[in-house]
Amino acid sequence: MSSVTEELPAAKPRQKMSDEAFITALVAAVAVGLFLVASLLVPNFFQWQNVVNLVTNNWAVISLGIGVSFLLVSGNFDLSVGGIVALSGVLSVWFAQSTGGANPLSTGLGFSYPMAVTCALVGAFAIGALNALFVVRFGIPSIIVTLGTMMVARGIAQVITHGSQRNTNLPDEFGFLGNLTMFGSSVKFPVVLMALLLLIAIFVERKMVFGRITYWVGANPEAATLSGIDRGWHVVKLYLVSAAIAGVVGILLASEYKSGFSNRGLLMEFDALVIALLGGVAIAGGFGSVIGMFFGAIILAVVTSAATGLVLSPDWQFILKAVAVFLAIVTQTWALARRNR
Fold first, then answer.
1. Residue 10 falls within a domain, yes or no?
2. Contact present, 88 and 255 (Cβ < 8 Å)
3. pLDDT in tens, 268-313
4. Which of 63-72, 229-238, 281-290 has the lowest mean pLDDT?
5. Is the dihedral of CA 270, 272, 275, 276 positive or negative?
6. CB–CB of 178/254 below 8 Å?
7. For residue 38, is it within any domain?
8. Rounded to an integer, what distance in angstroms lies between the CA atom of residue 242 and that of residue 68?
9. Residue 98 has pLDDT above 50, yes or no
10. Rounded to the nearest 5°, which phi and psi values hold at 188?
11. What is the DSSP string of 203-262?
12. N or C end of the chain, less CB within 10 A?
């Protein structure tokens, strides 16, 4: 009588978490840890409404962080987004103000609100196209180009507002979108739009060829070019998308406050860069994720909110931001190096 020995299937080796997923998980853990520490130090910090406020109060920076993160992954900077926020908001007000006002700041071009918004977005696209032109066509470093276009955009906004703001002689519908609440709650439309943009960005990053190409362009530009990828055209599209997001943010902020202010969005470009770096996006390109950027925004929001709750001066808040960014980059670099030994 012969016995038949059945071989058991070999167990599949456990797949190692990718470096990107590891950093994202690390950033999420740091965000939760900081929130718990802040809850111990700041009275009434540990509340659900405070968690909601950390997201809703930072919808503009998180939205800008999407475009900035994609460009960083591709190996490029975009420091122009804050200037575009100011310019698009001011343009939307100027175009929507009726003609024949009592003074120059109350006199506009008298466009309908939809037309005013469309023209303001064209202005945002123009700055994005300038970025792409100088970076792609002339090969000027993106950090220099976008710093320059940021100042140009804000300078145009200051000229239109005469260094002040435009907030009169506007149509009634101007403040509708910025103050529209959704689903019978206090959550405003800009917050819902931010969430939709975040979900779309995650899908593009993980499931679409466009997202994969962004990583290839940032990780190995020469290999991407040899593979037939039009690297320049891809970077052009990234700059246009980032400018479009910044334009929408500026228009919604102008609608929310019913004014066009040339200093609106001041330093937002640096906050968007900070949350991307906090979230693990590599400054050299080829690495990072939008989810990580979101948790980076939570880290920055917790630090800022806790500093305010502890009644620290704005100067100390800047120092805390700088320390948080430095520690985050050092920790991420150390954790990756130790993990990949």
1. no
2. no
3. 999 999 999 999 898 888 889 999 999 999 999 998 888 888 877 7
4. 281-290
5. negative
6. yes
7. no
8. 7
9. yes
10. -90, 160
11. HHHHHSHHHHHHHHHHH-HHHHHHTT--HHHHHHHHHHHHHHHHHHHHHHHHHHHTSEET
12. N
- The pair of structure tokens assigned to 137 is 């066509």
Q: Say if residues 223 and 93 touch (Cβ distance below 8 Å).
A: no
Residue 5 lies in a domain: no
| Phi (first) and psi of residue 166, to 5 degrees | -110, 120
pLDDT at residue 49 greater than cutoff 90: no
Domain range spanning residue 117?
51-328
Question: ∠ at Cα 67 (193, 272), nearest 5°?
Answer: 90
Q: How many helices (H) and strands (E) does the chain have?
A: 14, 2
Which candidate, 114, 112, 93, 261, places its Cα nearest to that of 169?
93
Amino acid making up residue 155: G
Q: How many domains does the chain have?
A: 1
Which residues share a beta bridge with 260? 166
CB 299 within 8 A of CB 278: yes
Cα–Cα dist 141/79, whole Å: 12
pLDDT band at 4 (very low <50, low <70, confident <90, very high): very low
CATH of the domain at 67: 1.10.3470
Nearest alpha-carbon partner for 95 in 158, 171, 177: 171
Q: How far apart, in whole angstroms, are the C-alpha atoms of residue 9 and residue 239?
A: 51
Write out 81-123 in H/E/C secondary structure.
HHHHHHHHHHHHHHHHCCCCCCCHHHCCCCCCHHHHHHHHHHH
Domain membership of residue 39 (yes or no) is no
Backbone angles phi, psi at 338, to 5 degrees: -70, -35
